[in-house]
Each structure stands twice: as C-alpha cells, then as structure tokens.
Design goal:
Helix content: 10-25%
Radius of gyration: 48 Å
Order of helices and strands: HEEEHEEEEEEEEEEEEHEE
Distance between the termini: 149 Å
Length: 246
C-alpha cells in the first residue's frame, strides 16, 4: 500500500510541471514555424490559440456548424500613436475610433495624421499691414504700423492702414480752408460785405469785421463779429466800431 502511495506522489510531481508548460504554450502567442506550430496572419483559424498573434478574427456569418476566421494582429490607438480620427485595427480589417480634438487643434492639423495639432500661419493675410491678427493656433502675428495721417483701421477696414477724411468744416468755420484730417483740405466758404476770414472768440476761422469797421458791433456781439487777431478785440459801443486791444 505504501508503495502505491509513493508512486502516486511521484506521478503527481511529474505531471504538474508538464501541465503548467502545456497551459503556457496554449495561451501565449507563438512564433510562426515551418512545421506549423502556429498559424501566421492571413491564414484560416478556428481559435485564438491557433494563431501566432493569439487573435483569430471571426466573421459574423457561420458556415455549417463550425465558425472559422482569419489570423491577424490587432493594434490600439496608443500603440499606433494616434489620438484622433479612425485607424485600421492592425491587419484585422476593422477600424478603431481614436477620439476628437479640442479647438484650435484639428485631427492631423499639425502635419501628422491621426494626431491632434495646429499649424500656425506665419504671414499676415493679404492686405493686412498693421495691428495684430490671430495665427489660427491661439497666438498672434504683428502686421506692422501706419504712418500719419493713416491709422490702423482708419479707412474702415480692420488691420489696414487708412484715413477717413472729414467732409464738413469744423463747427463755426465758415470761410477759408480746413484740413480734412487726411492730408487734404476742405473749402469752408468766402466772406462778403467787408468781412475778412479771420478768428473770433468762438471760431478760429470765420468771417468777421476787421479793426476800424464801424456800425457792426454791440456790447453783446462784438466777440463774434469783430476779428480778434492776436491782440484781443474791443467795441466802441457809441459808434459800433471794432478795434484791436494791444
């Protein structure tokens, strides 16, 4: 009886290592061998363990009572270095969805397929010659400055140097010429009835009566009808005569 027990123990100790090795061989992917130890990609298979890659891609249609597939090697988005769009699932005939990108990045926008990125512009858009514009990737480009009287956007177009000229004379100006603010001039009218184009207390360029003109000023209006020149102005109320104050 003791002999039988001893023999059974020896058999058990011998079988355990053999079973462990056999199990590892059944589960782990194997290298393709000329003697057919495992099946390479592209060959017909029935189970995963029959393929060297450990993956038997089976179709959705069964043929008879057996379901066969094809050995192939799948991949992952991480293994392929992809983080957006779709890629082939190795050579298994399926596809993997690797996700989407956050703006301003786009899928492949940096020049690498299936990788989120953004390629900034390096020159300002045609016609833009001042201020700053977006480079399309969260940065900005400096497009230059303007020379007076032009200002950036002054002509009504953003990021383009320009100037919008005035079309009317300044308030109070009713004679001579005035700048239009863009290098040109405006004609503000001419004077009559003995008036000259000068300055008054309320305007730098207005028709007014020069010193010595009689019968034109009163105590209440001499500062607007009499020319001030650079010396000030006065009015002899009795005769209504404009005069310069030295």
């Amino acid at each position: 009886m003791s002999r039988l027990v001893s023999l059974a123990g020896r058999i058990t100790l011998t079988l355990f290592p053999l079973l462990a090795v056999s199990g590892a061989l059944l589960v782990a992917p194997r290298s393709a061998r000329a003697d057919g130890g495992c099946k390479p990609d592209g060959t017909r298979c029935a189970t995963n363990i029959s393929c060297c890659s450990g993956h038997c891609m089976k179709p959705t249609v069964t043929h008879g009572r057996a379901l066969f597939g094809t050995c192939c090697t799948p991949t992952t988005c991480t293994a392929a270095g992809a983080n957006c769009g779709t890629i082939p699932d190795g050579d298994c005939g399926d596809t993997l969805n690797c996700g989407t990108c956050m703006a301003p990045n786009t899928c492949g926008g940096g020049g690498t397929p299936n990788v989120c990125g953004c390629t900034p512009i390096t020159t300002c858009p045609a016609g833009d010659n001042c201020g700053s514009v977006s480079d399309g990737c969260g940065g900005t480009l400096n497009c230059g400055t303007c020379t007076a009287p032009d200002t950036c956007g002054g002509g009504g177009v953003a990021n383009q140097c320009g100037c919008t000229p005035a079309t009317t004379c300044p308030d109070g100006d009713n004679c001579g010429t005035a700048s239009d603010g863009c290098g040109g001039t405006l004609s503000c009218g001419t004077c009559t009835d003995g008036q000259v184009c000068g300055s008054t207390a309320v305007s730098e360029q207005a028709c007014c009566y020069p010193s010595g003109t009689m019968g034109v000023c009163t105590s209440s209006n001499f500062d607007t009808v009499c020319c001030t020149g650079t010396l000030g102005v006065g009015c002899t109320i009795a005769t209504g005569t404009c005069f310069a104050v030295p």
